[in-house]
Amino acid sequence: MKQRRILVLLLVALAGCRTIPETNRCDEIAVTLHAITYTPLIASVTSSWLIMDVSQRDPVPEGVMGGPRGIFFPNGLTPDLEKWKDTYTAQVDLIAEVRNTSAHEIKLFEEWNSWGYCNLKFVFGDGFHEYWVTKRPGLWYRNFESFHKLAPGKSFLIPVALADHIWTGIDLVNTNASRIAVLRALYEQYQTGTFGNSNVWRGSVSSPCYPAAELLPRFGFRKAESHKSEDRDGAPTAVHPVDMTSPDDIQIRIEE
């Protein structure tokens, strides 16, 4: 009788283990970082901005150029537009690209909702220490599951504004900027959704390491000895800038 009870308990435990979703293979997605280039149309590195409040539902004020990767303000802002800019926007520093490298469709939570809000993280390094940068807790007035549904080979872009009120750890990065030489991104997703969604990817992936001074020139990072970074296999990885000339149709331009 005792042995039968132990057997039943073991079967229940094993059944419970099978209900835990498995982690997908890490080589099913790839994360790369892209610098932003500026042209005479966009005169300075402070001209590209991101609407930072994910619950902001008001229309963008008149006079602002809007695009899928950011918004752009004209010169000579009115007081009302300057106030709106200070309240709801943050400067875009770089673009993170997440690509499906598998042979099947993958679903990743969109970053505006609570399930995907913290998926992207950054790790800065000075050769001796790592400085982790993660999202501050969010607040949602509306929230529901929505996904990037990536077919094989497809990707989506995340504009990143490294502002202190959006990310934790930026203060340490700024304090140690003169020593920091490299950074990498992590993309992690372990939530599975609450409505039985299938093909929701789970796991953690790291980007290659990039020269911080080349990707983020405004921070004053230490320049690395080489202008090319190394990926996990040791091969050099060039920084791929994003052409911000046309805010309505932004394309990634690869510099050989």
Radius of gyration: 21 Å
In one word, what is the shape? globular
Mean pLDDT: 75
Oligomer: single chain
Strand composition percent: 25-35%
User: Order of SSEs, N→C?
Assistant: HEEEEEHEEEEEEEEHEEEHEEEE
**Number of helices, counting only DSSP H or I runs of 4 residues or more:** 4
Question: Secondary structure elements and their pairing?
Answer:
Layout: H1 2-18, E1 29-34, E2 36-37, E3 48-51, E4 65-67, E5 70-72, H2 79-88, E6 89-91, E7 94-100, E8 106-109, E9 120-125, E10 130-135, E11 147-150, E12 155-160, E13 167-168, H3 170-175, E14 182-189, E15 203-206, E16 210-211, H4 212-215, E17 229-230, E18 236-237, E19 242-243, E20 251-252
Parallel strand pairs: 2-19
Antiparallel strand pairs: 1-7, 3-5, 3-6, 4-5, 7-12, 8-11, 9-10, 9-14, 10-13, 14-15, 14-16, 17-18, 19-20
Note down, in words, how this protein is organized:
With 256 residues, the protein is α+β, with helices and mostly antiparallel strands. It has one domain. The chain is built from 4 helices and 20 strands. A hairpin with a 5-residue loop joins strand 17 (229-230) and strand 18 (236-237).
